[in-house]
Amino acid sequence: MSSLRITKIEVHEFTFPMNDVGKDYNGFNLVYEKGSIQTGYAYAMKVHTNEGVTGEYVGGDSPSFAELNMFADYLIGKDPLQRELIYNDVKRAMRKYDKMGLGPIDIALWDLAGKLYNAPIYELLGGWRTKLKCYASTMHGDRNGGLDSPQAFADFAVQCKEMGYPAFKIHGWGDYKIQQEIDMIHAVRAAVGPEMDLMLDPACEINTWLEAVKIGKACDEANYMWLEDPYKDTGVSMHGHKKLREIIKTPLLQTEHIRGVEQHVDFIASGATDIVRVDPDYDSGFTGAMKIAHAAEGFGLDVEIHSPGPAQRHLMAALRNTNSYEMALIHPKTEQIGRPHEVYADGYRDAMDAIHSEGYVPVPQGPGLGVTYDWDFIMKNRQGGREYGG
């Protein structure tokens, strides 16, 4: 047992601007809107120890940090290297809740361990990749002169293909019309030809299961690589997705909206998905995400990692059974992707043009997460926060 102990945890809420970004019909999805500025909210964490080494992470959201408030005092005095013990203790303590509060703290503890051992997290996980193939993942369709028609999505797919992206994922319209959605599926395939991988993610906007069947059959006809979160069950119905899989040929990608290794395994074993979604932020950090990835591997299935970020790059670098890094959410008329690129002081970027011409991004090579956060920017834009211990 090491003598290292957690002495203090800081959490800071801060804001950042998103230019030419608005909200869609019901105020939930980010969409393109020329001249509109949205205020984004983000969270920065710092874990201090008695030996001076710290762990840092910018991520999570307000519900996850509300959960952290319920168990942060437990962490004070604990050995930060005992991540498996912390995972299991907090998992049990948060059994009534979705446990998303565990993700950011676990990532910060892995960052701390990487700094202690002077190694990037992916090496601590046994990883070897240094370049990650990307796919372009769009903002939702809009009605504002951006991604506002099947042809607009088709033109954007061609643009991404010419930039080097080997694959393109569509987030359609929240206020969709079923025939327009189907027309878009076919228009994008016709525009990019047979060699570009295409995926569709309605983000649970499709109202009924039967409409999801229609969408799925259109994906079959256009040879899409996967269909993700198609309808308004919110991505959680094992029975509904199992029945959908029996009717359509396009592989389903599910499990973004369920939490924990056990629920992921139940979803797999029930036959409700072909590809398994995992996210270190959502799924209890690296500790929880690796459990899910290895469980999927045991079933012979792939995992696909949700959203971009340094943690996602390290996780992908350490897994065999995964394919592409999600560069999200991109748009032809705004560089904003809903995450604060200003927070990095070392040039790290997730953006449409952040990929190499051969379609990949690098894995950060510094200790821990391998990125340097701009704490001056964070504190200058701080709106609130809490400290525990100290």
Secondary-structure map with pairings?
Layout: E1 6-23, E2 30-49, E3 55-58, H1 62-75, H2 83-93, H3 102-117, H4 121-124, E4 131-140, H5 150-163, E5 167-171, H6 178-192, E6 197-200, H7 209-221, E7 226-228, H8 238-247, E8 252-254, H9 261-269, E9 275-278, H10 285-298, E10 303-305, H11 310-317, E11 325-330, E12 360-362, H12 375-380, E13 382-389
Parallel strand pairs: 4-5, 4-11, 5-6, 6-7, 7-8, 8-9, 9-10
Antiparallel strand pairs: 1-2, 1-13, 2-3, 4-12
CATH homologous superfamily descriptor of the largest domain: Enolase-like C-terminal domain
Fraction of helical residues: 25-40%
| CATH fold category name of the largest domain | TIM Barrel
Count of DSSP E strands? Answer: 13
Strand fraction: 15-25%
Protein architecture, described:
- There is one protein chain.
- With 390 residues, this protein is an alpha/beta fold.
- The chain folds into 2 domains: 6-118 and 375-389, Enolase-like, N-terminal domain (Enolase-like, domain 1), CATH 3.30.390; 124-362, TIM Barrel (Alpha-Beta Barrel).
- Helices cover 34% and strands 23% of the residues.
- The protein contains 12 helices and 13 strands.
- The chain has helices at residues 62-75, 83-93, 102-117, 121-124, 150-163, 178-192, 209-221, 238-247, 261-269, 285-298, 310-317, 375-380; strands at 6-23, 30-49, 55-58, 131-140, 167-171, 197-200, 226-228, 252-254, 275-278, 303-305, 325-330, 360-362, 382-389.
- The strands form 2 sheets. Strands 4, 5, 6, 7, 8, 9, 10, 11 and 12 form a 9-stranded mixed beta sheet that branches. Strands 3-2-1-13 form a 4-stranded antiparallel beta sheet.
- α9 packs parallel to α10.
